[in-house]
Amino acid sequence: MKNILVVVGSGNRNGNTDTLVESFIKGATESGHHVKKVNLNGHIQGCRGCGACQKNGHHCIIQDQMQDIYELFEAVDTLVLASPLYFWSISARLKSFINRLYAISTNDEYPQKDTFLFMTSGSKGFYAFEQAVSFYRFFIRALGWHDKGMVLAGGCDKEEGNSIIDEHYLKEAYFMGCHLK
Ligand SMILES: Cc1cc2nc3c(=O)[nH]c(=O)nc-3n(C[C@H](O)[C@H](O)[C@H](O)COP(=O)(O)O)c2cc1C
After folding, report:
1. Residues in domain NADPH-dependent FMN reductase-like (predicted)?
2. Gap from CA of 119 to ligand 1 centroid (Å)
3. Which CATH class is domain 3-178?
């Protein structure tokens, strides 16, 4: 049984990205895994680079939604990063979450995690995700983490606040959740 934290870097609850991860969560939950989801819709400030965390027992001095997430993060073995594609990259919310993890590092070493990447975009075609995937691959390797899969759902758009995402991506995400090891 895996303990999973899903971090959603979209401001749109029930938007495309949220809908995609919900399919994964359904599959994972049905298969007996324990899943907690956090929507980064409180204000996650950027890392100030003050270095206080490295001197005070790994506590970030910024008091915001991230304080609740540190505890959840420590408790899981699997981290799901989810984001809409914003200007060919991950959202600023998700990037701030990642930057703020610096607080828990010791000599640039991080607790081990398995990871997934779930993204949605307006454009069709894999090339749209190239920069985001390149960043994801690079940073998880640097942190010593292990990629367990990605779903890159292109061709999403939105009409009157409704999520529009192709059914086959939802099935892919559900299948990943079902077959999580
Ligand atoms: C600020 C902003 C930037 C975006 N940049 C891109 C982009 O570079 N490429 C793209 O294909 N779609 C882009 N999109 C579209 C979103 O990635 C897409 O609609 C996504 O599915 C929205 O997810 P959500 O419903 O979770 O918010 C952008 C949307 C916004 C609001």
Report:
1. 3-131
2. 10
3. alpha beta
Contact call for residues 27 and 174 (beta carbons, < 8 A): yes
Amino acid at residue number 11 = G
User: Which structure tokens are listed for 93?
Assistant: 């919310």
Bridge partner list, 75 = none
Ligand 1 atom at shortest distance from the alpha carbon of 163: 25
Q: Which atom of ligand 1 is nearest to the CA of 17?
A: 26
Q: Is 20 in the pocket of ligand 1 (CB under 6 A)?
A: no
Q: What is the DSSP letter of 169?
A: H
Q: What is the structure's pLDDT at 181?
A: 86
| Mean of per-residue pLDDT scores for the chain | 94
- Per-residue model confidence as pLDDT tens digits over 5-56: 999 999 998 899 999 999 999 999 999 999 999 999 888 999 999 999 999 9
Q: In this model, does residue 107 exceed pLDDT 70?
A: yes
Q: Could you tell me where the beta strands, DSSP code E, fall in the chain?
A: 3-8, 34-39, 78-84, 114-120, 146-153, 157-159, 162-164
From ligand 1's centre to the CA of 105, what distance in Å? 31
Atom of ligand 1 lying closest to residue 12 CA: 27
- In this predicted structure, what is the pLDDT of residue 54? 94
